[in-house]
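Backbone geometry tokens:
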Amino acid sequence: MIVREGIYAALWELGSTAARFTSANRRLRHWADVAPAEQPALFMSEKGGQAVIKKLGAPIVWTLYAEFYVYAHASDHYLAPASILNPLLDALEAALAPSPTTGIQNLGLPQMVQHAYISGKLQTDEGVLGDQAIAIVPVEILCL
């Protein structure tokens, strides 16, 4: 059996300490509601889960889903907002990297988490037409 809050809290701890975010909260805010002075900002959204039973009588194996929302604002009109966003994404990826010795990222919860990783399409709006850059980073958590 898994403890969802413990798993999401551990994921949040890794993500929120990945870089020097001015604002960070598990409660998602729309980018338009986050002032430039509050950025760079990180938010997380839980996106549900998928249950699988491998054979009759076996415990449920869960895959949980989450998304990190990264916002970066460039106050300098000559600076591409993506140049602020990209290092934040790199830091988030590094924070979620698997252990070099085991090849696994278990969020520090080896009894519940088999592996947590960035998975799927990274959605970005790099601020081509303005000063605001946004990225949505999908994460999957394979649970035991």
User: Anything to note?
Assistant: The CA atoms of residues 116 and 141 lie 4 Å apart. The chain has a mean pLDDT of 95. The radius of gyration is 17 Å. The beta strands are 23-25, 41-53, 60-73, 113-118, 123-125, 132-143.
